[in-house]
Structures are given as C-alpha cells and as structure tokens.
Design brief:
The protein is of the alpha+beta class and 378 residues long. The strands form five sheets. Strands 1-2-3-6-5-4 form a six-stranded antiparallel beta barrel.
C-alpha cells in the first residue's frame, strides 16, 4: 500500500486531521509506521469497570434490597373555590413516598401531610403496578399515617427496623424517595444533629427529630432514612429551605418513636397519650412546673407551679413565686434533666398506672417529696 493510500485509510477509520498530520510527520522524518490494531481502528477499546470502594458496594446492596420497599403515593383531593358563584368540585393531585413495613398485611408508613384530606389514595409499587389503599390510622404529633393496600400482592418487600436510640452525629445515612416524581431516587449524607425540634405548618411542635444533610426534596416526604446496613431509622418528614428545594437540612422522625405507637395506630386508628395538665419549663436548675391547669391531674396532686392564677374582682392575672414552685427531680425513679425527658418517661409509663414524681420545692436544693399522679388519656 502506498503512503498516500495509508493516510487516506486512517482518515476513514476516524483518525481525523490530527492522526493524518502525525503520520505525515513520521513519513517525512523517515520513521517506520507501526501496524494499527483492528480493535483500536474500529473504536472497540474495552474499558475495565471502575473500582468501587467497600462503602460504595455496601450502598449499592442497600439500595437494591430496600428500593423495592419504597412506594410512590398519589392522592386525589377534592377542593371547592369559595369565590366561585357556581362552585364546582375540582380534583387536586398530590404525591409523596411511603415505606412497606409489613409485607404480609400490606402495611405502609408515610407522613400524614402526604395524604391529608385525600379522597383517593393510590400506591405504585416498584414493579409499576398500582393498588388502592385505605387509611388505617394517623398521629398528628409525629406526622405519621398508616396505610394498607387493598388485596396486597404476595411478593412485597419490607424494610427491617433499626434502632434510632443508638444514632450518632456523623453517622452515614441514606434516603430513598420520589422527589419531584423521580421515583426511587437515592441520596446519601450524614446525621448532622439529633433531638431537633421543628414547628410544622399546622403549628405542631415535632420533637426529637433526626437532622441530616442527605438531599431531601418535595416528594421525599414519607420515604425512609436508612443506616448503612439498610435498616429503617427514620421517616423523612421536612426540610429547612427558603426556596422549597433541598438546602442540606432535612429532618426525619426517629423510628423508635413510631414503633412505640404503631401497634396502637393499627389496632385503633389513633394514639391516646397521657396528659398531666401542666406546662413545664427548662431552667438552669432543671425542669420546673410553670403552670397547672384547673381540674387537671397535676392540680389534684397539689403540684405547685411558678405562675399562679389570681383574681381580684374583674381582674385576672398571674403572680410568680419560684420559692414555692416544684422542680421535677425524678420520674418513676429516673433522674430527669429536660422537658423532653419528663415527657418521654411519662409516655413510657404503662397505661392506667400512676406516674411517680420526685419533686423539690423551690429548686434543686429544696425539700423533697414524692407524689403519685394518674394522667388522663387523650
């Protein structure tokens, strides 16, 4: 083959101007030309797969195992325009994520705000099949709703529960959901903080939340927050953002809070919580009783608050007296240091039993006494 024909052949195989120039330069220099391999000539270079770290392999395994347990929730809500002279019912569609936690019964966990006021709930599984679902129960305090599939298929996958009490800041976590309708999207991050308190749009204070920097966007609500072993440690519920998109601060309800109330939600559809009838406040000395409501269990137990209601004719107000107020030192024999610990101890008391309070009058150095209070369930 002539030198001219060889250069033309290289151009036809995709070498382009650069290759032609190099070959011409070599010919001009009198250098020999090495034969080109057929696979290189045809662009069939075999590329080895990129090496994966042990963590990457684990994340891939978790996604494959848990992805089928994440569902896509679609809701239809009927609304009426109050300013329309001839109002007509208009359907409004919403969406979110959910988690299969009981494959046999088709039980799904999600956020209450995902299905609030919905007239129709549909669940799309990983295989693309869509099923109708009914609302079994809900709890506004934790923003949790329990759904159940009508005639669930036999091959469902459920996510195992983890232990949110053992979480640490800096721990690796994974989130799976359907942000902006992009089903089963995986994001990764770490636990940024624990025991966060966030106020919802309905004015409810959600306490004890997990904060994470794993990207959570609209549509992720109700999806799982997983540890690196693929266990469910929380349900993604809210983001802190000025634009409505992820700003690297998301919140999840710890799974231990949900596990405590899940049997009651499935059995009765609601959660009854013990009510003491007081308002507590954290101080530098500990938890003190700020106010006691009239006719409440706390009033019957003669628990003394910081602020006492007084009446003088038509004037009603409060006076403060720290010296006579009660500091809550222990609940059921356990030392407590914050309102959250007091509330957690009371909630953990078996229904129907009295709560034993160790109180100190006027502060940590005050005289100590113990009272037994039976809270009201509401």
């Amino acid at each position: 083959m002539s030198e001219k024909n060889m250069i033309a052949k290289i151009n036809r195989t995709g070498g382009g101007y650069f290759v032609s120039t190099v070959v011409g330069f070599l010919l001009a220099m009198g250098a020999g030309i090495l034969p080109l391999q057929p696979d290189l000539m045809a662009g069939e270079l075999e590329v080895a797969p990129a090496r994966r770290t042990a963590e990457e392999e684990q994340i891939i395994r978790v996604y494959k195992a848990a992805g089928d347990a994440v569902v896509f929730i679609t809701t239809i809500t009927l609304t009426v325009d109050p300013f329309d002279l001839f109002p007509a019912v208009q359907p409004r569609e919403g969406s979110g994520s959910g988690i299969i936690v009981d494959a046999k019964r088709g039980i799904i966990l999600t956020n209450l705000h995902v299905i609030r006021d919905a007239h129709k709930i549909e669940i799309t599984l990983a295989d693309g099949q869509t099923y109708k679902a009914r609302l079994v129960g809900y709890d506004a305090e934790y923003d949790i709703a329990v759904l159940q599939l009508h005639n669930p298929p036999p091959n469902l996958t459920a996510i195992p529960f983890g232990d949110s009490a053992r979480l640490e800041v800096g721990q690796r976590v994974l989130a799976i959901g359907n942000p902006f309708g992009l089903d089963r999207t995986l994001t990764a991050g770490i636990i940024s903080s624990l025991n966060r308190t966030v106020k919802t749009g309905q004015g409810t204070l959600m306490k004890g939340l997990i904060q994470t920097d794993a990207a959570i966007n609209p549509g992720n609500s109700g999806g799982p927050l997983l540890d690196i072993e693929g266990r469910l440690i929380g349900i993604n519920t809210a983001i802190l953002s000025q634009s409505g998109d992820s700003a690297g601060i998301g919140f999840a309800v710890p799974i231990n809070q949900i596990r405590r109330i899940l049997p009651e939600l499935i059995a009765t559809g609601k959660v009854l919580r013990p009510v003491m009838g007081w308002i507590l406040v954290d101080t530098t000395q500990g938890v003190m009783v700020r106010r006691v409501l009239r006719g409440s269990p706390a009033e019957e137990a003669q628990i003394e608050p910081i602020e006492r209601e007084v009446e003088a004719g038509f004037i009603r107000g409060y006076v403060r007296d720290f010296a006579k107020a009660d500091l809550i030192y222990k609940v059921n024999g356990r030392r407590v240091y914050s309102r959250e610990e007091v509330e957690e101890s009371i909630v953990s008391t078996p229904p129907g039993e009295r709560v034993r309070l160790t109180l100190r009058r006027g502060g940590i150095e005050g005289a100590e006494r113990t009272v037994a209070v039976r809270p009201v369930l509401r």
